[in-house]
Write a structure and sequence with these properties.
alpha/beta, TIM Barrel, eight-stranded parallel β-sheet, 18 helices, 8 strands, 9% strand, globular
């Protein structure tokens, strides 16, 4: 089965051109070193996590109580798995997996007869050099930005690091104590000391090679120093913070993190949408934050799905906001195509980053995701050419900018 659309005309020419263009993979969660990856045993569930498993749960497949399906290793006998697989295997999440299986293992579907053999072969392929073989040789990815809890080595030929923003650590006094220890500070006892330690920690991470700090949209936008101080005082007593309390402290610290990021000349990545109650990470909740921090480059993740038009409008209106399509192509391929057709009319072409695979294990899936991204962009730009709104050479320049030139410049790679 051919899992790529049969393109014609300008779209076909652009898709073929895309195979020759280097790419920057703007977001991954893979192990921060190849050695760490080689030490992993890839299980059947790792083929499906973190996204196909979420579709399986949506289709009704049982998961352990209290476990987020997206992060649960699916291990099931084939008879109980097959009906759910058949319900989701034509979705974008599964399509990226199947393209990867077709490319590297010669099969285009998971079946009773092949699934255990596929897992065996994947583990046989997990040998030194796999990062180069997949990222460089098969995908043409020059750099991949990884958010993995700690930074890759500065001399890593492929990986560079994105670190979690201090604003995302404030729910745990243990995490804050660790941050203070790393910068040689005494125990943090006040909100001002927390901000100072956060600043010093960000400086330390940039000195070690961090190129970005990751935070996210938040439903609560009003900054309230008094409440932040109250929440921090409760945190010091060992109280386990409820989500709204942690958020009140987090958004206050996020503001300071944005100012420090501007001073360090690194961007802030902002998760938006998609997961679970996506209203809690609504892209429109970023507007005030972006307005208050015009000197900070804002990397808006995931196209704001499902609020894609809002994401476009935000990037159009604010010079410091950029549109990152990481993850988006495999959330809903046609949604991305339709959104990009509108985005071209509104957003400067210099503010779009076309690709970030956003995977954890079984890195062969990066290839499947990238092929879908190349296809989507080729369809969008090919349509532009065919309607005499852009020349073919201009479309090629735009494709290269979206996959390579724009992110390389933005992240200063």
């Amino acid at each position: 089965m051919k899992l790529q659309q049969p393109l014609t005309g300008s779209a076909k020419a652009l898709f073929e051109y895309a195979q020759t263009v280097p790419a920057i993979d703007t977001h991954e969660h893979i192990p921060r070193s190849e050695k760490d990856y080689n030490n992993q045993t890839i299980a059947f569930g790792d083929l499906l996590n973190p996204y196909v498993s979420n579709d399986l749960a949506s289709a009704g497949m049982p998961f352990p109580k209290g476990v987020a399906p997206a992060f649960h290793r699916v291990e099931a006998d084939w008879d109980s798995f097959e009906p759910y697989w058949n319900a989701v295997k034509h979705g974008s999440y599964a399509r990226a997996l199947r393209i990867a299986l077709q490319k590297f293992y010669g099969v285009d579907d998971l079946t009773r007869e092949n699934y255990l053999d596929i897992v065996r072969r994947i583990n046989e392929n997990n040998k030194p050099g796999i990062y180069k073989r997949i990222f460089r040789d098969s995908c043409g990815v020059e750099k991949a930005i990884v958010c993995a809890g700690d930074l890759p080595r500065r001399d890593d030929p492929i990986l560079v690091g994105n670190m979690t923003s201090p604003s995302m650590m404030v729910g745990s006094m243990k995490a804050l104590d660790s941050m203070a220890e790393q910068v040689g500070a005494s125990q943090i006892t006040s909100l001002d000391e927390l901000i100072e330690a956060s600043d010093r920690w960000m400086e330390l991470q940039v000195s070690k090679g961090a190129i970005e700090f990751k935070s996210g949209a938040a439903r609560m936008e009003r900054l309230d120093r008094r409440r932040a101080e109250e929440v921090f005082a409760r945190l010091q007593t060992g109280e386990e913070l409820q989500a709204d309390s942690a958020l009140a402290l987090g958004i206050y610290v996020r503001e300071a993190n944005a100012r420090k990021a501007a001073a360090l000349d690194v961007p802030i990545a902002l998760h938006t949408g998609v997961w679970f109650d996506y209203r809690s990470v609504d892209v429109t909740d970023l507007i005030g934050f972006i307005q208050r921090n015009p000197a900070t480059r804002m990397d808006i993740y995931h196209l704001g799905i499902p609020r894609v038009r809002d994401a476009i409008q935000i990037v159009k209106n604010f010079p410091n906001a950029y549109l990152n399509l990481c993850w988006a192509h495999i959330v809903a391929s046609d949604m991305v195509v339709n959104t990009l057709k509108e985005a071209i009319d509104m957003v400067p072409l210099s503010k779009v980053f076309a690709f970030g695979a956003d995977y954890i294990l079984f890195i062969e899936k990066v290839y499947g995701h990238l092929q879908i991204a190349r296809e989507n962009v080729a369809i969008v730009l090919g349509d532009r050419v065919d309607r005499n709104l852009m020349g073919l050479d201009e479309a090629k320049q735009t494709l290269r900018a979206w996959f390579y030139d724009n992110p390389k410049r933005f992240y200063k790679l």
